[in-house]
From TrEMBL:
UniProt GO MF annotations: amino-acid racemase activity
Family statement drawn from the similarity comment of this UniProt entry: Belongs to the HyuE racemase family.
Location of the CN hydrolase domain: 5-293
InterPro entries: Asp/Glu/hydantoin_racemase, C-N_Hydrolase, C-N_Hydrolase_sf, Hydantoin_racemase-like, Iso_Racemase_Enz_sf
Name of the protein: CN hydrolase domain-containing protein
Annotated region (Disordered), positions in chain: 328-347
Originating organism: Meristemomyces frigidus
Pfam families: Asp_Glu_race, CN_hydrolase
Amino acid sequence: MPRTIRLAAAQMGATNRTDGRPQTLSRMLKLLRSAAAQKAEMVLYPEIAFTTFFPRYLIHDPDELASYFEHGSILTSTNTALLFSTARELGIDISVGFAEAADDGKRFNTSIYYHANSNSVLAKYRKIHLPGDFEPFADPEATNQLEKRYFLPGDLGFEAFRVPDPAGDREPIMGMMICNDRRWSEAWRCLGLQGVEVVLCGYNTAGFAPHLWGSDKNADPAQAETTALFHHKLVMQHGSYTNATFSVSAARCGMDDGKYSLIGGSCIVGPEGNILAEAKSTEDEVIVADCDLDLCTQGKTRTFDFGRHRRTEHYGRIVEQTGVLQPPKLDSTKLTSGHGESENLSKLLPNNTVNRQVRILLCNPNATASMTESCLKMILPTLSPDVEVIGFTAPRPAPTAIEGNFDNVMSASAAARALIPLQQRENYDAVLVACYSDHALIRMLREEFEIPVIGIMEASLIAARTLGARFGIVATSRRSKIIHGDAVRHYGMEGFCAGIEACDLGVLDLERKPREVVKSVMQEAAKKLIGRGAEVVTLGCAGMSGMKEAVEEAVGKEGVVVVDGVVAGVHHLVGLVRMGARTAKGGMYASSARGRKARGQEYI
Ligand code: CDT
């Protein structure tokens, strides 16, 4: 008996922000009836099918945000129940993507497999590879992809499942992935290793979105869409072929809000990587194909017979390493052995010490994203390939500059609330607080996290104390001079401080005033410090990152060293991470989270 199953994809065209749910649901029902009329046994809908693709918007209104999510049981909720009851009547299974507000308060980008015969959810998948960013792009014209903001990475793994076949014994093995997952060979292989025969993948893929794709803003939109479509089919065909499986993909496509283009290209692919059916439009459309599951056997028992051919002893990197670790540069790492042969230094070191990827979160506690970017630009050339620095800008109500105590506390609170869930998701190795002060966030995070946390001021002073006997600080405003003086005393360094000189500039003046003006006042301040005996000068504001050379120009000849706090901080933390150091929890930095929980105050 051939194990043939008729599968369908329900592609959905433009769905705008203003479209009502009943309107979108009625389109889904029409597609369902069309698939059933064509005798499909299962129909796949796109990712986040019941609403527009909202992660492209920065949504501040909690009610609007909640309206895009499905709450409670998807099978019985008023917004979605009709789809499932109709599928049950028509005897057709459904796989559909939606934004899930789970009962425990967590939010995921989810898809389920609904089995009509048993009226039950057979399997649930939560999207694992969340593309895009937490923060929107600075450019207001850019298309955003804020999935990292709105969802947690899926926690259910890539689990294949059998679909019961009351009429026979076909029992296909299926697996789900969502959109960006399809670009990751790891996702396919996890399903392939469970003998998957049908991979289901709903998607929303931007056509022309140069910021997202990291491509040229002036690229031809039509060409950009062709490339995006090419990549979509490439990964569906490649994943199907290399795992000897059928795949079904369903697009949400067209031009949302008359502005955001999404590619079509929904397709059903066979286990040889051949396209069996493909959507012709970028509108609502059903495609159908008969899939003989036994055709998977050829690939699964020959070229991709995993049990016979895979060499897992050489695949360790795939699970041990996340980011890229290039081979060390040849010039700097060649050692000459006694026999005149060169060896590669990294190979002489035990694994997982020098070579482990270190991920440092650079947290700018003010809400000025351009300042975060300047800090990242500054640090980038100093990083080895095994260190990654990820920028974070505090969300509002953090102020755009931190110039006093009110700003300090407001920014610490806003940043901490966003950072705690971020760290739970991303598990960074250390945090650098990029505000030149004894910022409240530093001690908050030391309490809440176990990883090392330091601010750029403290890191600068430690470096300055290492490099010279007396240091001086170039401050922004006269007020910051007082604040820095207090912080120097707090750090117990006043005995080594030759002075603090203010430039009479506000934090944002550092960006807004002409560079030559800023440079000259900073140089003058540095010279005064040297006159007072400073051997090392530190730059007293994250916004001064990038002015190191300019200050060195003025004072470097006199043997004076200039320390940039961002660079000092990142490398200080990398050292601590390499040492395996953790924040001491027995005293001052014990977390008070448990106490808050006991009091029923888990409101952060
Ligand atoms: N929805 C989704 O995952 N879209 C992504 C866009 C990536 S943005 C660079 C995709 O991979 O198609």
